[in-house]
Design a protein that fits this description.
Length: 234
């Protein structure tokens, strides 16, 4: 894989909270366009912390992290906003807006793209139908189950067709059939060029789908499979 295809680059990155022990130390690796990565590790190993670094919700304590070829320690607030428009995020707490309908939540990221309200609505309906929530367009998040909220959050993250998709335990609240459907959605995003990073404790997916695995162990990242570029498939 060519160096210029690297979309994320860690160079001796360390991260710790205050004076505490490091959460991550001496992380050096590159993540590539059109690639799919499983991020694994024991509970509390640092998977969510790494996701926050990738979303630029925090900065490394030392070392260099580049995203879209920009050093995140040097970007302005405006650059941060613009870079985040290229990143889809599904965190475990969903972050849905309870005063907006499901349809409005999913269509919300498209407001910055300049598309008409009708176009935004049509795209949101299409992706909600795909994840099995076609009957929930006008419902509000507070009446949904955890699994339904998870699918709304995923639909909102992928609707912008991001260059990077970060999904933290995206199948944790859904049954196996829906989980497989969501994995196929992520696979489709990856095939279209998105760098997909899925944090999971669900070993069956990691063992079944032959993608790169990045395992956090003792504050370090161990590449259990090649991370030189795109791999595997369904």
């Amino acid at each position: 894989m060519a160096v210029e295809d690297a979309i994320v680059s860690f160079d001796k990155v360390m991260l710790h909270y205050g004076e505490g022990a490091p959460v991550l130390k001496n992380v050096s690796l590159s993540l590539y366009k059109r690639s799919f990565y499983f991020l694994t590790g024991a509970s509390g190993a640092g998977k969510t912390t790494l996701m926050r670094l990738l979303y630029m919700g925090m900065k490394p304590s030392s070392g260099q992290l580049k995203i879209f070829d920009r050093d995140v320690s040097e970007i302005s607030r405006q650059e941060l906003f613009e870079m985040r428009q290229k990143i889809g995020v599904v965190f475990q707490d969903f972050n849905l807006l309870n005063h907006l309908t499901v349809l409005e939540n999913v269509a919300l990221p498209l407001k910055v793209t300049g598309e008409s309200e009708k176009q935004r609505e049509n795209q949101a309906k299409e992706i909600l139908d795909w994840v099995g929530l076609g009957e929930c367009f006008n419902a509000y998040p507070y009446v949904l189950s955890g699994g339904q909220k998870q699918r709304v959050a995923i639909a909102r993250a992928v609707i912008i067709r991001p260059e990077i998709l970060l999904a933290d335990e995206p199948t944790g609240n859904v049954d196996e059939q829906i989980a497989n459907k969501l994995m196929n959605l992520f696979y489709g995003m990856h095939k279209m060029g998105t760098c997909v990073i899925v944090a999971t404790h669900y070993r069956q997916f990691v063992d079944t789908f032959h993608y790169n695995e990045l395992k956090i162990e003792n504050c370090r990242i161990i590449a259990d499979r090649s991370i030189s570029g795109p791999t595997g498939g369904f």
